[in-house]
Amino acid sequence: MLDFVEVRVPIRLHLPPIFSSRLQVGVLQYIHQLLLKYNAELQGIPVAINKISVLDPCAVIKYDNPYFHLSVMADLTLWRISTPNQLTCGEINKISGDHVGLIMLGTLNASIPASSLRSAYFYEIFSKKWIRLNVNDECIDGEMGNMTEDHILEAEKKIFRPKQLEIGQKLSFYVDGMTFISEDQISLTGYRQAASSKNTKFYNGSNSAQTRGSNSAQTRGFNSVLNYGFRNSVKTG
């Protein structure tokens, strides 16, 4: 799966003079800016910070720069890809004619645009569900609402092609690669079928929706824009 790992790392801070008498507030404000943004050096997205300690006995002011500089240590919880072909799971929490919304790993919001669904599904406006165009023996009913993510990930049929997409349903897929774009966006490459069908791209990034990848009939999966943020976050970018 996509892993949550804890690392203890040094962080170099550059704080404005307004925090000279409120060091703790300045340190917390600066470090919190690192959350939910991809960090290339850490090779992951910090989602939580704990145990912050100041390393320097005093801050340093250099030349005519009014900012003061100091180092701290902090425990970071990172969301990262540690091995290829990792299985992850999301739960559908919103369906419309424009997109299908997911909660990934109980933490991240995902959006699958309609343009990447139409090669295999059509939107049924009265039931508000995406129905599969060609149903065959490889498809399953997709009534997975009572199954936990662990059950889905441990099931023999981990990757499936549901007959329809509906709220509460679990969707699983493999992630096999990542490309850094910016601190607000990374590109995750994944697939939902057999290992030989690695032709679906998943995108993890900022709050602006983007549609990329192939919509051809041979594409077996979705293009997804994953928005950094917890369920209760108002704004994450």
From TrEMBL:
InterPro entries: RNA_pol_Rpb7-like_N_sf, RPA43_OB, Rpb7-like. Residues 85-141 form the RPA43 OB domain. This is RPA43 OB domain-containing protein. GO terms for biological process: DNA-templated transcription initiation; transcription elongation by RNA polymerase I. It is found in: Nucleus. GO terms for cellular component: RNA polymerase I complex. Keywords: DNA-directed RNA polymerase, Nucleus, Transcription.
